[in-house]
Design brief:
Blueprint: H1 2-25, H2 28-31, E1 33-37, E2 41-48, H3 61-83, H4 89-112, E3 115-120, H5 134-149
Antiparallel strand pairs: 1-2, 2-3
Helix pairs in contact: 1-4, 3-4, 4-5
Length: about 160
């Protein structure tokens, strides 16, 4: 459980510190875009009220709270899984990454009403229109880690 808690705390902190630094300190919220290393890395402000890629954006206020509730339920389920069979340290770190990332985005939804996305990366002639954040990276990497390293024979999705 220690791996989970430490990883969740680190992912949450990195997410919130990066959002504060870029959105508020570098004033991306007002500037809209900062070319860091175009097109490979551009800070582009986006307030996402939906889920990945802006799906379900612009819905009623109840969608915001439904997404908060879903994140809390998923985190609770992951903690249950950790206590009931998830044993490999790398899988515990993966679960912690998902929890920390989910809580980072949930914090944004509660405080701002939307998730602050700012990372935009494009390459090789392909223009990526989407922005994401450190929490999204933690969630994606954690989910990938669980798919690869989870060793619970009782778990069947």
């Amino acid at each position: 459980m220690r791996f989970v808690a430490i990883t969740a705390l680190i992912c949450f902190a990195l997410d919130q510190i990066s959002k504060w630094a870029v959105v508020h300190w570098a004033d991306l919220a007002t500037r809209g875009q900062i070319d860091v290393l175009p097109p490979y890395l551009v800070f582009r402000m986006g307030w996402n009220t939906g889920i990945n890629f802006g799906l379900f954006s612009g819905g009623p206020e109840t969608v915001r709270w439904l997404l908060v509730a879903i994140a809390v339920v998923i985190c609770a389920w992951l903690l249950w899984w950790v206590k009931n069979g998830l044993t490999r340290p790398v899988a515990l770190v993966a679960a912690g990454a998902i929890i920390g990332g989910a809580m980072g985005n949930t914090f944004d939804r509660v405080i701002y009403g939307a998730v602050a996305d700012f990372l935009n990366m494009s390459c090789c002639g392909i223009q990526n229109p989407f922005a994401f954040n450190v929490a999204d990276i933690a969630i994606f990497m954690g989910a990938l880690g669980l798919l690869i390293f989870a060793d619970d024979p009782k778990f069947t999705p």
